[in-house]
Automatic annotation (TrEMBL):
Cited PROSITE patterns: FAD_PCMH
Keyword Mitochondrion: no
Protein name per its UniProtKB record: FAD-binding PCMH-type domain-containing protein
GO molecular function, one term: FAD binding
Matching PANTHER family: BINDING OXIDOREDUCTASE, PUTATIVE (AFU_ORTHOLOGUE AFUA_1G17690)-RELATED, FAD-BINDING PCMH-TYPE DOMAIN-CONTAINING PROTEIN
InterPro entries: BBE, FAD-bd_PCMH, FAD-bd_PCMH-like_sf, FAD-bd_PCMH_sub2, FAD-linked_Oxidoreductase, Oxid_FAD_bind_N
Keyword terms: FAD, Flavoprotein, Oxidoreductase
Family from the record: Belongs to the oxygen-dependent FAD-linked oxidoreductase family.
Keyword Flavoprotein on entry: yes
Gene3D superfamilies according to UniProt: 3.30.465.10, 3.40.462.20
Domain FAD-binding PCMH-type: start-end pairs: 42-213
Length: 486
């Protein structure tokens, strides 16, 4: 392979003629417009982007990076809040070309997906066979999310995505391609299911266990009034979750929007919208009964209908209701994964206080930006997700049953400083909910990220890192640190 470093003078045509690699160096007119991540506030300067489409090209990409003494960064869906999937001065491996689904076994109900596949693509394939697996809420990701947990509507019934992974194929720093599962390279298999972002190698594909999907499932949303009932309804939601059926998934979403047309007056206003999303895995008639019970505990609640006949959807329809994968915005994100007991009266009041510190109108921003969106979202992490021990795999957070995120998304860079103040206010209350962070929402400012992500599993993860990547080739600001004293 041509070992001329990717730079402003890179000879792309020479390299491409050798290996048919799609290489985008700084001298390529596509470089500045190349998609990095959904968080455009953070911009990276890799030496080049390479988009391999098979294992041979992937291995050649790794060898090329090593030949020019560069590290690599690895991106699949590009949904990293901290943009750790694209790093400065690295050869960026864009896995979007690894987008094949294969080895489907309808009898054993298993399938293999490459790590550039999206959940939209994955679910479109599996639901055609009335099968699915727990995943995440964003349709445009798959590989990266699978390696760090993975929780959506199906997770209370079947566990995290990592709990349904049967096998992985991995490219190691020494150039070898290895398989890991319960019988081969078991320690690597354990580590990648929860700490797959930790810098062990490039995961090529993942074999998943699938589960039968009924033709229709119950799905509903309940609208709430933020100003008058946020605290009371959040408390009642958490209380309901403590004893609810384990086939129920709940989420809460609160959003501050700007310059929206009022349905009543026709003029512009700046609403705060609040809703609960209710999902039941089972007969829709049972879902109606459970959702009605929740609805009756809430105050100032509105719902279009509770009837199963109005609230039945296919799982594919439900799974595609996630955020727009093409919506690229600047953003700040803060999160915690915590136990329901931490939602005390004082803690809930703090959530409302710091969330409500947003600009009241777009005119109060440094630069008017009507597309700004402040959100507070909570997701249920109980049921089957809590049934495994904290060391079943490297995903540690089995003692926690709720995760939440504060996010602001916007367009104008002039608002960075103002919105950073809002983020800092949010940070000031996070310790009330404990130290743990769901690693699919990483925090680049947390000084104790090792424990926050991995808890007591971290020392074992260090030992496995030393075994499979002894020179720490795969590294980034929050990759697993090697302990050479072991």
């Amino acid at each position: 392979m041509n070992t001329a470093e990717c730079s402003n003078t890179i000879n792309n045509s020479t390299i491409n003629s050798n290996d048919d690699l799609d290489i985008i160096g700084k001298g390529d007119q596509r470089y500045n417009n190349y998609f990095q991540n959904y968080n455009s506030r953070i911009h990276r300067e890799p030496v080049c982007y390479i988009r391999p489409t098979d294992v041979h090209q992937l291995t050649e990409t790794l060898q090329y990076a090593q030949s020019i003494n560069k590290g690599v960064s690895i991106r699949s869906g590009g949904h990293s809040a901290t943009v750790y999937s694209v790093l400065d001065d690295t050869v960026n491996i864009d896995l979007s070309g690894f987008n094949q689904i294969h080895s489907f076994d309808p009898v054993c109900k298993t399938v293999v997906a490459q790590t550039g596949v999206s959940w939209k693509q994955f679910y479109t394939f599996t639901t055609a066979h009335s099968l699915a697996v727990p995943a995440g809420g964003c349709p445009s990701v798959c590989g990266g999310l699978s390696l760090a947990g993975g929780s959506n509507f199906l997770a209370p019934t079947f566990g995290y995505t990592v709990d349904s992974i049967l096998e992985m194929t991995v490219l190691l720093a020494n150039g070898s391609i290895v398989t890991c599962n319960d019988t081969v390279n078991q320690d690597l298999f354990w580590a990648l299911r929860g700490a797959g972002h930790g810098g062990y190698g490039v995961v090529v594909d993942i074999k998943y266990q699938l589960y039968d999907m009924p033709p229709l499932l119950y799905f509903n949303t309940i609208e709430l009034d933020y100003e008058s009932s946020f605290e009371e309804n959040l408390r009642r939601l958490v209380d309901y979750s403590k004893t609810m059926d384990t086939n129920i998934h709940l989420s809460l979403d609160v959003r501050k929007l700007y310059d929206r047309k009022s349905a009543t007056t026709g003029g512009l206003h700046d609403p705060v919208l609040m809703k609960i999303t209710f999902f039941y895995f089972g007969p829709p008639s049972e879902g109606e009964t459970h959702c009605t019970a929740l609805y009756n505990t809430l105050v100032n609640a509105k719902v279009k209908s509770l009837a199963a006949s109005d609230c039945s959807k296919t799982f594919l329809q439900i799974s595609l209701l996630g955020p727009d994968p093409d919506l690229i915005r600047r953003s700040y994100t803060k999160s915690r994964i915590t136990h329901s007991s931490n939602f005390t009266t004082a803690a809930i009041a703090d959530i409302k206080r710091v969330f409500s510190a947003f600009p009241p109108t777009s005119d109060h921003m440094t630069k008017k930006d009507p597309l700004t969106n402040f959100s507070f979202s909570m997701y249920y992490h109980g049921g089957q997700m809590n049934k495994y021990a904290s060391d079943f795999n490297s995903y540690y957070h089995r003692h926690d049953d709720w995760a939440f995120t504060f996010i602001v998304t916007y367009l104008e860079s002039a608002n960075d400083a103002l919105f950073s103040q809002w983020k800092d206010n949010v940070t000031s209350i996070l310790d009330d909910f404990g130290p743990f962070i769901y690693q699919n929402y990483p925090d680049n400012e947390d000084p104790n990220w090792e424990y926050a992500y991995y808890g007591a599993n971290y020392p074992r993860l260090q030992e496995i890192k030393l075994k499979y990547d002894p020179n720490n080739y795969f590294n980034y600001p929050q990759s697993i640190r090697i302990n050479h004293n072991k």
